[in-house]
Amino acid sequence: MSLLETDPYVGNHCESTTLVNLLRQREVDLSEPLIFGLAGGLSFIYWRTKQMPTPFVGGRIKPDTLSEHLANALNLRLSVHETSSAKRAREHLLAELDSGTVVGLKLDRYFLDYSTDDFRFAAHYVACVGYDDDRFALVETQPLGLQWATGESLATARNARGPMSSRNRAFTLDLPKGGLPDLGEAARKGIRTAADNFLNPPISNFGYKGMHKVADLMPQWLDDLESPADSLPEICTIMEDAGTGGGLFRTMWADFLAETAEITGTGAYEEVSKSYREVSKKWTEVAGLLHEAGVASSRESLHSASKIVHEAAEKEQRLMHRLMELSS
Question: What's the CA gap between 44 and 312, in Å, rounded?
Fold first, then answer.
């Protein structure tokens, strides 16, 4: 049984791709960049604990908050179901699917039988769009698309534990009775939220301060990391390929700003969009330098990457101030 009448949307980032498919079932067709931006999805985070062999460098807000912020932005009803029981999680999923509802799932793809992942990550999202006996249809991001997973592997993946995991989290979206709010104002609100968080981070690991912090740390990574040859290419992958759409989500944010310019008729958003495309290229360059540093043990590459990140931090700080002005 499939709940889709057309091919599913296969996007770049897992949580926003899932949200696109949940909304499309409700006959609301919004682009992935618009969903990302409405939720104020752009951010920056540097995180490392003593237990982490590889620092985490991220370019979006925390898992789950994209869904929550989108629901607030569009007055959607976000229904979340969590349970420590794999049996109850399965029963809830089947009941929703049997009622004709596409369901968002949070899980660790490592455990799905079609996965080729060689790493654990318990904050991955898919849209479950149907089932056939004990096989479940899941919508992944590019290049995987629609995949089928056995019930056993899905149960294990949903029940996985680790950083940013949840207890068999499932969620659905329903539309407000009065229809969606004005998209232009919602986009401005999403921009204000992202800009405020970026410019006024709660701690120095976030926002533009986090970017300067990681830039200061980069030159020492060949000495500080337990295995630079493994860790640096992994950081590169997280920044460039792990569902970001390229450039640490900056390309997706640029697309959102261009769409906001069309929706609002404010050409200045298009100018900032073009500037963010240049920033995105810089982050792609940084990712390449980190990979090069890991493969060749190149200190010069790390120093070059550090310089670019400092420059990007200053430019993004200026751009976020400009976006705050435009969206007030």
Answer: 12
